[in-house]
Amino acid sequence: MQKAEAVVAYMQSVGRCRTQLLLEYFGEISEEYCRVCDFCMARKKAKRQENHERLLWEQVMQHLTLKALHPKVLIGQFEPKFAPDLATLIRERLDKGYLHYDKEGKLHLLKN
């Protein structure tokens, strides 16, 4: 019965490295992530996405530090493949108070 419970726990685990779970089951402890299981891959992907967003935001800030721009003009300063990410980033930063629209519909940088 313990083995079945361990298998269920392994399959339902979403917050731990699978290799760490397996090693723990066999009495070994490892602090290192395997970097190949679904948990580790999701972690790696999230980190890449975070870096991508940070780099885009830095570029947006550079543009808006120079002058206020309409969102379409701002997005046009980047490669077309980044348009969806930029639109999301702009919405999020508007919600958080980092950006605001003026009366002409141009974006202004409020705080870093």
Automatic annotation (TrEMBL):
<dbReference type="InterPro" id="IPR032284">
    <property type="entry name" value="RecQ_Zn-bd"/>
</dbReference>
<keyword id="KW-0067">ATP-binding</keyword>
<keyword id="KW-0547">Nucleotide-binding</keyword>
<feature type="domain" description="ATP-dependent DNA helicase RecQ zinc-binding">
    <location>
        <begin position="1"/>
        <end position="40"/>
    </location>
</feature>
<protein>
    <submittedName>
        <fullName>DNA helicase</fullName>
        <ecNumber>3.6.4.12</ecNumber>
    </submittedName>
</protein>
<dbReference type="GO" id="GO:0016787">
    <property type="term" value="F:hydrolase activity"/>
</dbReference>
<dbReference type="InterPro" id="IPR036388">
    <property type="entry name" value="WH-like_DNA-bd_sf"/>
</dbReference>
<dbReference type="Pfam" id="PF16124">
    <property type="entry name" value="RecQ_Zn_bind"/>
</dbReference>
<keyword id="KW-0378">Hydrolase</keyword>
<keyword id="KW-0347">Helicase</keyword>
<dbReference type="GO" id="GO:0003678">
    <property type="term" value="F:DNA helicase activity"/>
</dbReference>
